[in-house]
Design goal:
Elements: E1 2-3, H1 7-12, E2 18-22, E3 29-33, H2 34-40, H3 54-61, E4 65-68, E5 75-78, H4 80-85, H5 93-103, H6 109-124, E6 131-134, E7 142-146, E8 151-156, H7 167-186, E9 190-195, H8 204-223, E10 231-235
Parallel strand pairs: 8-9, 9-10
Antiparallel strand pairs: 1-2, 2-3, 4-5, 6-7, 7-8
Helix pairs in contact: 6-8
């Protein structure tokens, strides 16, 4: 306890009078009634009178630990409980999301397929400009967009159809899917949604059928024999 009162003030004060103390953690002045100060002076008392609040007491007894953000390398402070609860440490939710998206081990089969298609399609159509995972067409991300053909593709995995991460996450994803379809319709973009939920793990041989589907649709558009429709769904199950 760090008293800011004199011994005389303590002796002459009444039981209900407030006496000034300095917080051992934040060093701010706070006040306790004399009877509580008297109780805190007892060595057997649980109340010490050292802190102005429970928050300061916890911070003093369990001081924050400096960590280095695994994404941006920026130093920041974490509570001991937060250090204990996770193996990886970040300075913000944004850095955590970026790191998790890069290092995730679940839910990556769609993105692996997309990466593979991003390598194959420009080779098959060197004169066509592809936009992969860009937001310029509808102010929202499209997996594949071909501006010259006003044609887009969305590759929807199982997370678009089943509540793998819970019903709220599924509802949010399906709402976003519906928004994309409406945006494409309003901008005269033919959107082809390819259901690739049957693809349990990525292999080029399995991915070939999805490339063939996309290739057939592109060839039909190039030949002029495919009418423009607002939305189409290709189920490969």
């Amino acid at each position: 306890m760090q008293p800011l009162y004199t011994e005389t003030e303590f002796k002459t004060s009444k039981s209900c009078q407030l006496l000034p103390l300095r917080c051992l953690h934040c060093t701010h002045t706070f006040y306790l009634h004399k009877h509580k100060v008297h109780r805190a002076l007892n060595p057997k008392s649980v109340q010490t009178g050292d802190f102005c609040s429970t928050k300061c007491q916890r911070s003093y007894e369990c001081p924050p630990i400096m960590i280095c953000c695994e994404q941006c390398q920026k130093p920041s402070q974490k509570k001991p409980s937060e250090i204990k609860d996770t193996k990886h440490h970040f300075c913000s939710q944004s850095c955590a999301a970026k790191w998790n998206n890069t290092h995730k081990t679940k839910g990556t089969r769609t993105s692996k397929l997309e990466v593979w298609l991003q390598g194959q399609l420009p080779l098959l159509y060197p004169n066509i400009k592809f936009h992969f995972n860009q937001t310029d067409a509808i102010n929202g991300e499209l997996d594949i967009f071909i501006p010259s053909l006003r044609l887009a593709f969305e590759l929807n995995g199982i997370f678009h159809y089943e509540p793998i991460y819970g019903p709220e996450k599924l509802a949010k994803m399906q709402t976003n899917d519906a928004r994309k379809s409406q945006a494409c319709l309003e901008r005269d973009i033919e959107l082809c949604i390819i259901d690739n939920s049957s693809m349990k793990n990525f292999k080029p041989l399995k991915a070939q059928k999805f490339l063939d589907i996309i290739k057939n649709i592109i060839d039909l558009k190039l030949s002029g024999s495919s009418p423009v429709i607002s939305d189409c769904l290709v189920n490969t199950t």
